[in-house]
Design goal:
Strands 2, 3, 4, 5 and 6 form a 5-stranded antiparallel beta sheet that branches. By secondary structure, this protein is mainly beta. The chain has a single domain, classed as Neuraminidase (6 Propeller).
């Protein structure tokens, strides 16, 4: 097992790969995150960040399986020049939501070949609750440039908070897994939407699991097995015991059944899953553990998600709960690479780190 730092700067708050995405082509791996300003002390809240400073979308690339990384701003058009997927963490003047009504913000999708060998799709959003809007970008050059932004519908919800999670079975079909608001306008509940025309239009496909009566179910991570089974891991929170739940579909994502509780306790506030399938068919799910000892963990299933191992502690040396939000991918040699945000001390900057491990 190897841990390494990908991006770290003094007085910065680098964070939340789960909100952006990870794409891989063998040993070439790209993922997104965002960088704001660190703020010390209890007044900063759950996340130690300065709400009066902007967040800048960033992108990291490795061409050697994660050994070395190049980091820079995400090469995409920012609506109104604002950062995205972070409105809940900044003051009103820095939010992207208000500029989305302006003319010319969104483009019409030209249609994409989802099976293009260098294709990638990235979702983005404004906020989390009623009024939140979402959109996507597309790339056909391994994230070196992004086309868009292209608006997503609300699909009948009061708000949609999109993070990147999708499955592409053919060149014109793509199923997005998204978080929508509950009926009261709070986050959230999981659903999927589908395009069959290369991304020109998306339609509601199905809800994934019931709307929670208490708290939220958000931030899906999806794997489609070779036998046609769809598996979606979902973060729950806003309740005494945050978990990660797994739902399964055997009818092309039309209906869903609860399959397992993959992680019975994720720590304070919960943390999203990053689920991948290994070359040998097993499933690996990585998450940040937000209770003592704070760190990054993984669980494994060898039976299509029906049962899961006890947690494997990848590391337990974080300073507090302000960690996690991982992305993960299986490397060509069968190892797993995961990236996440981390800290060494509550009063130290947040940085982007990675771990490569074998199972």
């Amino acid at each position: 097992m190897k841990h390494f730092i990908i991006y770290r700067e003094p007085e910065r708050f680098a964070d939340w790969p789960a909100n952006f995405g990870l794409w891989s082509w063998g040993d070439e791996i790209v993922f997104g995150f965002t960088v704001g300003h660190f703020a010390k002390g209890p007044a900063a809240g759950f996340h130690a960040l300065d709400r009066t400073q902007p967040f800048v979308p960033m992108q990291a690339r490795s061409t050697d399986g994660g050994f070395t990384w190049q980091v820079g701003p995400t090469p995409c058009r920012l609506p109104g020049g604002k950062g995205f997927s972070a409105d809940e963490h900044v003051v009103d003047d820095l939010k992207v939501g208000p500029v989305l009504q302006e003319p010319g913000i969104f483009s019409a999708p030209p249609g994409f070949d989802f099976r293009h060998p260098d294709f990638a799709l990235m979702c983005a959003r404004s906020g989390l609750e009623a009024g939140a809007r979402s959109w996507f970008y597309a790339s056909t050059d391994r994230c070196r440039t992004w086309e868009g932004p292209f608006a997503l519908p609300s699909f009948g919800y009061l708000g949609v908070a999109a993070r990147t999670d999708y499955v592409v079975p053919d060149s014109e079909t793509c199923t997005l897994f998204l978080s929508g608001t509950r009926r009261d306008g709070k986050e959230g509940t999981v659903f999927c939407a589908r395009t069959t025309d290369g991304g020109r239009t998306f339609r509601f496909h199905s809800p994934v699991g019931p709307e929670p009566a208490v708290g939220f179910a958000i931030m899906p991570s999806t794997v489609r097995l070779e036998d046609g089974t769809w598996l979606v891991a979902i973060r729950t929170g806003g309740r005494p015991k945050p978990t990660i739940e797994l739902y399964a579909s055997t009818d092309d994502a039309r209906t869903w059944q609860h399959r397992a509780t993959t992680v019975e306790y994720v720590g304070r506030g919960g943390n999203p899953p990053a689920m991948v399938q290994l070359p040998d068919g097993r499933l690996c799910l990585v998450y940040g553990f937000r209770d003592e000892p704070f760190g990054i963990r993984a669980v494994v299933s060898a039976d299509k998600g029906y049962t899961w191992s006890s947690p494997l502690v990848l590391r337990s040396d974080a300073g507090n709960h302000d960690i996690g939000y991982p992305r993960a991918t299986a490397l060509p040699d069968g190892q797993v690479l995961t990236v996440y945000y981390y800290n060494d001390h509550p009063d130290a900057e947040r940085y982007i780190a990675g771990t490569v491990f074998s199972l």
